UniProtKB/TrEMBL annotation:
UniProt catalytic activity: guanosine(46) in tRNA + S-adenosyl-L-methionine = N(7)-methylguanosine(46) in tRNA + S-adenosyl-L-homocysteine
Domain of life: Bacteria
Similarity comment text for this entry: Belongs to the class I-like SAM-binding methyltransferase superfamily. TrmB family.
InterPro entries: SAM-dependent_MTases_sf, tRNA_(Gua-N-7)_MeTrfase_Trmb, tRNA_methyltr_TrmB_bact
Binding site for substrate: 145, 177, 214-217
Keywords noted in UniProt: Methyltransferase, S-adenosyl-L-methionine, Transferase, tRNA processing
Organism per entry: Marinomonas hwangdonensis
Binding site for S-adenosyl-L-methionine: 66, 91, 118, 141
UniProt xrefs under NCBIfam families: tRNA (guanosine(46)-N7)-methyltransferase TrmB
PANTHER family found in the cross-reference section: 3-DEOXY-D-MANNO-OCTULOSONIC-ACID TRANSFERASE/TRNA GUANINE-N 7 - -METHYLTRANSFERASE (PTHR23417), PENTACOTRIPEPTIDE-REPEAT REGION OF PRORP DOMAIN-CONTAINING PROTEIN (PTHR23417:SF14)
Designated name of the protein: tRNA (guanine-N(7)-)-methyltransferase
Keyword field contains Transmembrane helix: no
An example Gene Ontology CC term for this record: tRNA methyltransferase complex
Length: 235
């Protein structure tokens, strides 16, 4: 991955983990058709480099970035419920991207765009610096085994990368249903000088009403599973 040095504009080589592991990326014939039909309207390409939000959406607005939206239903719902905002989803799972675009098309949504690429590369090469109003990371892979904890996306370097695309006062919102991962997120974020915990130091945040309750989350609640939200604002 290449990251730009903002002082010299020379690329800096930086070794990072990938944000997700692709599992079951093969699409059905129907998903492939939806992908191809809708990409021209909703798709953004890593190879096109740095984008301008006003150019992409045709207006100035608050822009929300979400990484790992799964099959896209909750992100589409958020975009539908907040037409005054614009949303960019980043997901490496092609069937999920196809599904999101199909849902957005059915709902007549035009304030949503999507990358089918690794978030680390998109953040480094495509997203404008210090501009987004929110960055969302909901239910990422918790990598349960201790020996795999280093693969968790929420690490100090990732928190810095998120801060680089957020404007001052922008928020980094995370949610997980795995308590050890929630504790890991808290430990990482509380050490970041450029963030402030919106709920108070060391505290989790109640689920905001605007974050849709997913089917996955509803099932977990019925089984007595907890969910932890963390919201940090950029200083």
């Amino acid at each position: 991955m290449q990251e730009q040095n903002t002082d010299t504009q020379e690329p800096i080589a930086r070794r990072t983990i990938r944000s997700f592991v692709v599992r079951g990326g093969r699409m059905t014939e129907g998903q492939q058709k939806n992908y191809e039909v809708n990409w021209a309207q909703f798709g953004l390409n890593l190879v096109d480099g740095r984008i301008d939000y006003a150019t992409v959406f045709g207006r100035e607005s608050d822009v929300v970035i979400e990484v790992g939206f799964g099959m896209g239903a909750s992100l589409v719902e958020m975009a539908k419920n907040a037409p005054e905002k614009d949303f960019i989803g980043i997901e490496v799972h092609p069937p999920g991207v196809a599904k999101l675009m199909m849902l957005a098309k059915e709902e007549g949504i035009n304030n949503l765009r999507v990358y089918c690429d690794d978030a680390i590369e998109v953040m480094a090469n495509c997203l404008p610096e210090k501009t987004a109003s929110a960055f969302q990371l909901f239910f990422p892979d918790p990598w349960h085994k201790k020996k795999h904890n280093k693969r968790r996306i929420v690490q100090p370097l990732f928190a810095e990368q998120v801060a680089s695309v957020l404007k001052i006062g922008g928020v980094f919102h995370m949610a997980t249903d795995w308590q050890p991962y929630a504790e890991h997120m808290m430990e990482v974020m509380e050490e970041q000088a450029q963030y402030e915990n919106a709920a108070g130091k060391g505290c989790y945040h109640p689920r905001p009403e605007w974050r849709p309750l997913t089917k996955f989350e509803q099932r977990g609640e019925r089984l007595g599973h907890g969910v932890w939200d963390l919201i940090y604002s950029k200083r």
